[in-house]
Amino acid sequence: MNGIHDLGGMDGLGPINPTKDEPRFKDDWERRMFGLFVSCFAGGHYNVDEFRHAIERMGPAHYLETSYYEHWLASLETLLTEKGVITQEELDARKKHIAMEDA
Amino acid sequence: MPHDHPHPHNKPLSDVELRVKALESILTEKELIDPEAIDLIVETYETKIGPRNGARVVAKAWSDPAYKERLLSDTTAAISELGFSGVQGEDMVVVENTEDVHNIVVCTLCSCYPWPTLGLPPVWYKAAPYRAKVVKDPRGVLDEFGVSLPEETEIRVWDSNAELRYLVLPKRPDGTDGMSEEQLAEIVTRDAMIGTDVLAAH
After folding, report:
1. For B45, which of A17, A24, A103 is closest by C-beta distance?
2. Are B183 and B55 in contact (CB under 8 A)?
3. Do B26 and A94 touch (CB under 8 A)?
4. Is the complex ipTM higher than 0.90?
5. pLDDT tens, residue by residue, B146-177
6. Which of A46, A59, A81, B62 could be A50's S-S partner, Cβ–Cβ 3.0 to 4.6 Å?
7. Domain at A45, CATH number
């Protein structure tokens, strides 16, 4: 399927900026995100193809503007709500609650 | 994750941080995940599974011709002989660099990468510029990595997918004849096993 994820051969995306050494995760939320992905995968909530397809369904601009683990986050949110494991309302309410506690 | 006060609040949690925390908190409450298992998963990929595994495969292939033959003909089995197998390494192919051919690996569609031998991919491997450019201008990409190859060297670019993962077997550098397998493993870089590095003579 054509989509923004099909990047091979595209021009003008800027320098690669390779680094010889970098931390495996640049932020703690990336650590948690990685672990959430593996745990939910092991729990049988989706397969790898579904997971990638949910990333590929992101809007093109959103896809290019967001980092790798944000793609994972978007995919996990999409799949878990579509499958009825959690609801968007639950997520929104919990976000608000955590933000208030943090303030 | 419990919120451990007191700590200085430099800035409020970002939207992304809030979304990840909300997900983890709800899934934990529903007993669908175990936060301690997440700690363990993360620790494993931060400390145990990384390019040192792949370097051991390469060093053994350089030192043991029979192993190299097995590695090239039945890659997945030969790699699991050393104890490296599992998620994202179920079907492996090794491509060998020679005097005439240099191989580079990419995943244009996403980030497919051989986790058991190389660990998690570096940021640049997953980002758009490398994925877009390497299939069209591999020499330009190598230039960005400070690598230049003779004009007559053929460059082959391998596009990984969800089922099949590639590992480059770099050319053994000159001046390493007397090295033990352990010493050889020390000089193999992650990028050499992706194909964006060429190992210098010793």
Report:
1. A24
2. no
3. yes
4. yes
5. 999 999 999 999 999 888 999 999 999 999 99
6. A46
7. 1.10.472.20
